[in-house]
Structure formats: structure tokens, C-alpha cells
Design brief:
single chain, alpha/beta, 4 helices
Amino acid sequence: MKRYLGLDIGDRTIGIAVSDPLGLTAQGVETIRRKSLEKDLARLGELMEQYETHSLVSGYPKNMNGTEGDRCEVVKAFLEKVKKQFPDVEIALWDERLSTVAATRSLLEGDVSRKKRKKVIDKMAAVFILQGYLDRIR
């Protein structure tokens, strides 16, 4: 079985989740604070090495009506740069509509403070993205 990294790509942060070695569950890893493309890709490379994976599942932020908007272009542009830096990487796109909503609801139900929610929301969204993908391929 192979491990996957889940990505929730935003302008200021990239939420990261990882699957267990059996590909059954997703756990939050970290939120990369975006500084520069070079540093973002370097950190992503370190995480792929640490978790021994070349398989990424990226959230794909379609509009609620299913069309692709500006956010999809931003994600595609970033993933093209990932592919250029790591030619062996496999990338799957996962429709992430409502992943941030689900993550927020989950944190609210867990009574997590607003300040703490802000720090972990992207990582949690990455967990929802990756878990959705894992459930689908199983």
C-alpha cells in the first residue's frame, strides 16, 4: 500500500495531511505558512521524504455549481510547479467543495477556540480532502 499527502492549497498557507501506511485514515500534519515558492516546494519535498510518498491529493476548489473558477487556476499553477520540481510525483485532484465548512463544523463541535481554529483549519481541511479521496478509492 502507498501513503498519500493531502494538500489544501491557499494563498497564505498550505494545509498538509498524511494517510496511514495502509491508506485507510488521514491525519493532520502541519500548516505550511507560505513564504516563497522555493521554500514551499522545499518543505513539501521534506514532507514527501519524511512520509516516504510520491502521491499527492490536492483539494480542487470548484465553485458550488461545479464550474472551475480562479481558485482552480491558482491550484493548477502551483501543482504544475510541484510536478516540475518532483517529476515522479503522482497528483490527484479532489473536489474540495465544503471541506473547509466540514472542518470548521468539526472544530466548532470540538469547542475549539477561534484563535486555535485559525491555526489548524487548513490542516483539518487537508484531512477532509484526503479522507474523502481514501474512502473513494477503497
